[in-house]
Backbone:
């Protein structure tokens, strides 16, 4: 609208000048101009024609709309014809009508192009999602493979370490066996000095004055008896029949078994022959069959035969045997097998009474081998009865486990010592028999 200052003054008839026809025409023109400037055609340019397609002439559009050239125009189209929107974008009014017609959509490809772009983006998104999933799956598979390889490597390292420890243990045990064999051969070659008969006119020598006196308490007596001899000594005793007396000192103490462990090995072989798993006539070592090897393992304390038998039974099998035969302290380990005097006494007592679970042939075979033992410096040297024993000695450990069939009763005694000697073991045996009988 025009500023108030530019409006004409009131006339003489007191009628505003703006009510004149000229000002009304000016106002209508201004309104038409404003309406035309706000037409949607200003903000919606005409469709872009594809390359190679000529725009339809304005006259063709006019013909399609029913207005022929030279025909009078619709009075209602005067304002539209004068409007700038009719020529903006280089299109005619007829072309705008064609854009609205579905049959002419091929001349305006923007919606189709937008749809194609949208589809392409959706395909890209799907491909990206599939690629991400495939990458994650491949990463998981690779990680799983790495974990499996690491686990396998750890198992191989553990097996290698166990094999190394086993080899070291075998070497240590072989060295110990070699020393034991050398000591056994040396002792076997030494003949015990001949005992001179006492002069009838001369009284028999008495024992040391510090020997304890048996007052009926066998545990206390054995404890005092062990203290009266050199070295660290444990003793276990069980009387079979008679009064059935038992006693021990440090009887449950775990000690190095030396070759007394071969008693448990012999039981394992006897049990497996009885079950048919092994045969006596199988060749074992140096042309010797299994029967010969078992006899010499006990009577001669042969080590090669014991090694073969131990491998046949296995360490776990030997531990099971110790548990079955009443040896809770006995433990088979690669270095030194450990046991106690109570375990050895319990084993031999069950063997003598037939409670070990062996048949008569197996029991007689083992008892016969014990009766043929060549090492007689310990319990056999101090007993007045028939002794069936198994010794063990290595690096200062002297052990002797025996079944003693005394004229006045049978008993089982096991003596294990460290830093002592065979004479002490024989002396303890003499004192025990003096106390019992």
Residues:
């Amino acid at each position: 609208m025009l500023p108030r200052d530019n409006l004409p003054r009131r006339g003489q008839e007191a009628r505003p000048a703006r009510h004149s026809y000229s000002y009304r025409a000016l106002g209508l023109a201004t309104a038409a101009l404003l309406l035309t400037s706000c037409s949607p055609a200003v903000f919606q340019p005409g469709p872009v024609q594809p390359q190679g397609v000529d725009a339809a002439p304005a006259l063709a559009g006019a013909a399609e709309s029913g207005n022929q050239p030279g025909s009078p125009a619709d009075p209602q189209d005067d304002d539209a014809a004068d409007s700038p929107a009719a020529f903006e974008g280089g299109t005619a009014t007829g072309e705008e009508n064609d854009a609205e017609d579905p049959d002419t959509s091929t001349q305006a490809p923007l919606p189709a192009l937008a749809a194609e772009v949208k589809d392409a983006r959706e395909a890209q998104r799907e491909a990206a999602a599939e690629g991400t999933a495939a990458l994650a799956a491949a990463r998981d598979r690779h990680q799983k493979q790495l974990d499996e390889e690491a686990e396998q490597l750890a198992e191989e390292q553990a097996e290698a370490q166990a094999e190394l420890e086993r080899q070291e243990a075998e070497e240590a045990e072989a060295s110990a066996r070699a020393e034991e064999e050398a000591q056994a051969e040396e002792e076997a070659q030494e003949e015990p000095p001949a005992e001179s008969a006492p002069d009838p006119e001369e009284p028999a020598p008495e024992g040391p004055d510090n020997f304890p006196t048996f007052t009926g308490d066998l545990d206390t007596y054995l404890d005092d008896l062990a203290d009266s001899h050199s070295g660290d000594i444990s003793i276990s005793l069980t009387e079979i029949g008679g009064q059935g007396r038992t006693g021990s000192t440090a009887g449950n103490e775990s000690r190095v078994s030396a070759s007394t462990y071969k008693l448990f090995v012999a039981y394992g072989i006897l049990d497996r022959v009885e079950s048919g798993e092994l045969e006596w006539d199988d060749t074992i070592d140096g042309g010797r069959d299994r029967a010969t090897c078992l006899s010499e393992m006990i009577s001669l304390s042969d080590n090669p035969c014991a090694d073969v038998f131990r491998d046949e039974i296995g360490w776990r099998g030997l531990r099971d045997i110790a548990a079955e035969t009443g040896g809770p302290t006995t433990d088979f380990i690669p270095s030194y097998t450990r046991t106690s005097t109570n375990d050895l006494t319990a084993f031999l007592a069950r063997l003598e009474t037939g409670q070990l679970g062996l048949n008569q042939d197996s029991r007689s075979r083992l008892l016969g081998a014990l009766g043929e033992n060549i090492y007689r410096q310990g319990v056999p040297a101090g007993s007045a009865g028939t002794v069936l024993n198994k010794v063990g000695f290595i690096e200062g450990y002297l052990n002797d486990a025996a079944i003693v069939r005394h004229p006045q009763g049978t008993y089982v005694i096991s003596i294990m010592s460290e830093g002592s000697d065979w004479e002490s073991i024989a002396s303890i045996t003499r004192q025990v028999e003096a106390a019992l009988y």
